[in-house]
From TrEMBL:
GO terms for biological process: defense response; protein ubiquitination. Residues 13-87 form the U-box domain. Pathway: Protein modification; protein ubiquitination. The lineage of its organism: Eukaryota, Viridiplantae, Streptophyta, Embryophyta, Tracheophyta. It comes from Populus tomentosa. InterPro entries: ARM-like, ARM-type_fold, ARM_PUB, PUB22/23/24-like, RING-Ubox_PUB, Ubox_domain, Znf_RING/FYVE/PHD. GO terms for molecular function: ubiquitin protein ligase activity. PROSITE patterns: U_BOX. This is U-box domain-containing protein.
């Protein structure tokens, strides 16, 4: 049921007691507070979250902030929706109840206890994972119960089954890590090696979850030495790139794979390992498969790798690199344009062949449009540098007869 009904348009009036006293809209998840008044859950939660401690209707103090589901009223509302289906009213779905703190504590204790049978611990973890998937509120409740410490111990414990480790990993990546957590993982090389090996697991889900944790740890670790230690781990680049190359990869796999690769490539000393592992070919081949945000990150990674000689050579050797980068300018976003221009500047500075390829791909028009656009100043500076670099590569009639060039804001050479 979307927001609210328009009685005049639908020729149906919502019963007064079906409306939330706060939002005045049809209640989707009616709950009763300590004063006996019923509200829609989202409305009363927002009311309390802003610091209010009284009942909105009675103004009496809320002695208890427990919200009790009003199942009877919810079923009446659902019956009313069904009865008025002819007027365009859609039946509200039965809401999933938020996780109770006592249940979360019980599940965590059950999963953490080494004395429990493996199947019992695994069952507790799966139920906890289901709760975490249901809502942000559930994740907030779970996070408040020291879940990260419990899960980290389970992920890296060598005395338990791999199923427990993999299920714990799947839950752990749903929660942001503290810097303390990240240092605790990154400072132990055997833990990073374990995650690197999981990148080649038979299950694509396990591989993606491992890449997600690696990216989270790198992003949350301030120490440059620890970040270098992670990116220097054997086969870690190969594993992440294999996720991007895998034909069975899902949108989530692409997103996490490129995030992990970008995070690893931020470490200057090991960028050559990304190139050796096939990053250049994979990024160009997969560029069209990324959504906007991931395409930006992919282009940023390409620019990073083009800053080293071996990276430039690898990208220049791919026949589609220059045409794709030229085509990307002004097509995805300002940031994507900036990264594409930066990569092209590096490629054209290193190779005359890349200059000729760029000219043939129509870079002149793209750059002239770029310097006159509302794009970032850095993108414009890169475009101007490219124009100056390529001035000797233009066909003689492309500059002299170009009205766009004559009226552009590019500083004369």
């Amino acid at each position: 049921m979307p927001g609210s009904l328009e009685p005049l348009d639908l020729t149906v009036q919502i019963p007064y007691h079906f409306r939330c006293p706060i939002s005045l809209e049809l209640m989707r998840d009616p709950v009763t507070v300590s004063t006996g008044q019923t509200y829609d859950r989202s409305s009363i939660e927002s009311w309390v979250a802003t610091g209010n401690t009284t009942c909105p209707v009675t103004r009496a103090p809320l002695t208890d902030f427990t919200l009790i589901p009003n199942h009877t009223l919810r079923r009446l509302i659902q019956d009313w929706c069904v009865a008025n289906r002819a007027f365009g009213v859609e039946r509200i779905p039965t809401p999933k109840q938020p996780a109770e703190p006592s249940l979360v504590r019980s599940l965590l204790n059950q999963a953490a206890s080494a004395s429990n049978p493996s199947h019992s611990r695994l069952s507790a973890l799966r139920r906890l994972r289901g709760l975490a998937r249901d809502s942000d509120k559930n994740r907030s409740v779970i996070s408040s119960h020291n879940v990260r410490e419990v899960l980290i111990n389970l992920v890296f414990s060598s005395s338990q089954s791999s199923d427990l480790s993999h299920e714990s990993l799947a839950i752990l990546v749903m929660f942001p890590l503290t810097e303390f957590d990240c240092v605790g993982i990154s400072s132990e090389p055997e833990r990073i090696s374990y995650l690197a090996n999981l990148l080649f697991h038979s299950s694509i889900e396990v591989r993606v979850n491992s890449a997600a944790l690696i990216e989270n740890v790198i992003a949350g670790t301030r120490s440059s030495d620890l970040r270098l230690q992670i990116s220097n781990t054997e086969i870690i680049f190969e594993g992440v790139i294999e996720i991007l190359k895998n034909p069975l990869s899902s949108p989530r796999a692409f997103k996490i794979g490129i995030k992990a690769l970008f995070a690893l490539c931020l470490v200057k000393q090991t960028r050559h390992k990304a190139v050796t592992a096939g990053a250049a070919e994979t990024l160009i081949d997969r560029l069209a498969d990324f959504d906007k945000c991931d395409a930006e990150r992919a282009l940023a990674t390409i620019e990073l790798l083009c800053r080293i000689q071996v990276g430039c050579a690898a990208f220049a050797a791919h026949a589609l690199t220059v045409p794709l980068l030229v085509k990307t300018i002004l097509k995805i976003s300002d940031r994507a344009t900036e990264y594409a221009a930066g990569a092209l500047l590096a490629l054209c500075s290193a190779s005359e062949l890349s200059q000729k390829e760029a000219v043939c791909a129509g870079i002149l028009t793209q750059l002239l449009l770029l310097v006159q656009s509302d794009c970032t100043d850095r993108a414009k500076r890169k475009a101007q540098m490219l124009l100056k670099l390529l001035r000797d590569a233009w066909p003689e009639d492309s500059v002299g007869n170009s009205d766009d060039f004559l009226c552009s804001e590019v500083v004369p050479f």
